[in-house]
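Standup, Tuesday
Yesterday: got the pipeline producing structure tokens again.
Today: sanity-check two examples.
Blockers: none.

Example 1:
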Amino acid sequence: MLSLWKPWKFLSSKTFSAFETLQFLSLSSSSLQIKSLSPSAASESLRRSPPRLVISQVIKYATTHKAAQQFRSFIITSGLLLHATAHFILLCNTLLRCYPLFEPLRRFPSFPPSYDTFVYSFLLHSCADLELLLPGLQLHALTLKVGFRSHVYVQTSIVRLYAASGFLLDALKVFDEMPDRSSVTWNVLITGLVKLGELERARAVFDRMPARTVVSWTAIIDGYTRLNRHEEAAGLFWRMVAHYGMEPTEITLLTIFPSISNLGALKICQSVHAYAEKKGFKASDVRITNSLIDCYAKCGCIDSASGVFEEMSVERKNLVSWTSIISGFTMHGMGAEAMESFEMMEKEGHKANRVTFLSILSGCSHGGLVEEGLEFFKKLVVEYQIEPDIMHYGSLIDMLGRAGRLEEAEGIASEIPMEIANVVIWRTLLGACSFHGNVLMAERVTRRILSMEGAYGGDYVLMSNIFAAAGKYGEAEKWRRMMDCSNSTKVPGQSLV
């Protein structure tokens, strides 16, 4: 059963060992067994025993659905549902953390209206995480009935529920009607709007925020990054640091790295690198180190990327680290180095995934390492038993096409399963035919493309150019006329010169 909450944040390991035995609970090898007690005896046992005794067993068997059912039976037979004592509320809170789908979550009428705000906040967060809108609506109504209309934590949970469920207007309405708001309330709304793609609304809320925190800055920067508005994301990042003196967290850095990479902003990457070193993020968070490797490579500085990678200890390097450096070597045309890194990765005991194989195949393609690339593709299928996707096939066909092995490339393209095949594969092959002047295959491939997607002006133009390069001007003119008759369009080329 899914566990959304981590109760060990609230109870230490010493508490667990101190309360492992419970007088009225006994454990069998397969599941938790509750001794048969009368309701009065069970209630008396609970009153005599600290509630953490029960809680420790709840946590210990948090993945056992049968245990949850037996706990529920005990609560019902002991009569604890009739009065919400402090002990019972503490126990119920733990059950909600361990079992978000615990039966009372679906049967709100059995909940005593005297529950505290802590319980309602937990329930609302569970509904948001599990996308249970109808129970969430019932909880919202119940909070109004019991007088929590103005409670900032409960109302913040309601804002999060509506935002997570996509009910933007309801989230805004609850937010606007709140007499008091904490910074968490503002951040919840901004984050919800960003995830819904409502960046302009999120920015308007951000600009209204009386006291911005690093969380709100990170959320709005993330919104611009998600929508590929990288210059604005980078501008906000510098504004946060330079004008407001806000210190970025690890999450902030992870959010801005994609924008730095897309802009190729090497100086910003170096500044972030220095900041991460100063704050100890690079040493403590492997995600920061991996992002630096990828960012330096995409900014065109493979030496810095390799330097960051080499500084990592063998124990810290994970599969993402190796994949990042292999991908970096690949994009810089260093196929031999990428292949060497792949072999070292395997020696270190890391098992490649489909992303790693895609990087190494691309490296072999750009480096002209055809036989090595074929061996890696065989390893992908046979040794690792990974089903190739269209991108793996595309890299393989591109590799063979660059090497002039067009017949092999056409054969592989023809064998790609229909459910993943697309025209991109055939256009890759068509480009190789154009480069190597194979007119007959180019005509076959073009007709295959037209049958799959229909008319596209670029395909006709390319085919016409292939015939013209071969001196067959009549055929070239024929393909131009076919383009005119098909009413297909071609985007005109533009120059910034």
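Example 2:
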Amino acid sequence: MSVQEYLDKHLLARKIEDAVNAAVRAKAPDPVLFISNHMKRVVPSAITKIKARQILDSRGIPTVEVDLYTHKGMFRAASPSGASAKIYEAAELRDGDKGKYLGNGVSKAVKNINEKIAEALVPLYKHLADLSGQSGLILPVPAITMISGGKHAGNNLAVQEVMILPIGANTFEEAMQMGSETYHHLKAIIMDRYGSIGCNVGEDGGLAPNISSFREGLDLVKEAIERAGYNGRIKMAMDVAATDFCIGKKYDLDFKSPNKSGQNFKTGEDMTEMYSQLCADYPLVSIEDPFDKDDWEHTKAFTDLGVCQVVGDNLLTSDPKRIERAIHEASCNGLLLKVNQVGTITEVIEVVKQAKDAHWGVIVSHRCGETEDSFIADLAVGLATGQIKAGAPCRGERVVKYNQLLRIEEELGEQAATCETKSYSTSERFESAA
């Protein structure tokens, strides 16, 4: 093969010319370095090696971590795990050997990856967008945990999370600033009223003062928003996780208080009335799992009121059949997407499309047993879900997701401004309910 044939075969002259032109347009101070980096970016990644291992998640329970090597570098990801009932979601592969990690080891899964999976990829947001056919990249509105309760904290609060949505932010960076400032104002309020013990955090990083009523939690967060100066720009949300305190067809709001348990039972109708009043009294625009995972009747009745976004988590478990039923019956209007409940990224893309076609909100979510992996940040951007739930601006396994979104916004540069405009237009769904 002649030199000219070699150049023609690999389109070298054209590629080098493009790199030089890009350096000139950018007025790069170091054109050689710029051209080198430019050429690296245009070369497609090829997987050269994959290595899996067993690590621990944030609850000290084994999970799988994978190192994926390409000629561009090594990339790492790990799988989280949740504590919610797994009746309807994909089963995790655990070893079952009670002599090791109480049966929770994942050496079988690690062996499958190392010995059976010949080709794998930990995709970033652009690749996910390509896979899903998504033309626009959108940075999500974060649902930031402020107060933890339910099974996520040791207080007497039945509701699992009180969150904020900084829908008035112009950029994701500003959204995180608003969230962090509000969190620290809340911490100061709790310190003043409950002492330092009230500033202990739950599994998702939310503050956990020993309060017991929904209104106490909402009042504290509302005051923190006011102190931070973000009235009108920050809305509120709750993850009730009502399955955890549903007994038969009633709801025990004092289930965490042994001395009171059974004295504060509410019917589905009582709960609906309570939620409606809370939405009227607070800037509460989204409620997750307001009823039991199988209480389709009351979930639908509450959704029909149109007072807020009603999100299905335990109700749906990211399962296509349950989502299909919910769409058909108009049982809710929001999907909490947990990747490892579905099973594969291909299936994740399908359920997101399913929810979007029904004009639902989609919230990419972390799990209570998390890792330092930031994949769900890329997923939220790549699939343009518009919302992400990753916990409080506290604890490394939560913050790493937010930090990755800050990096993505920075990488998108001017493009991010357009993305943010689109992203925060999702606030319209909340504004109409506020």
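Quick observation on example 2: Confidence is low (pLDDT under 50) at residues 418-427. Residues 160 and 206 are 10 Å apart (CA to CA).
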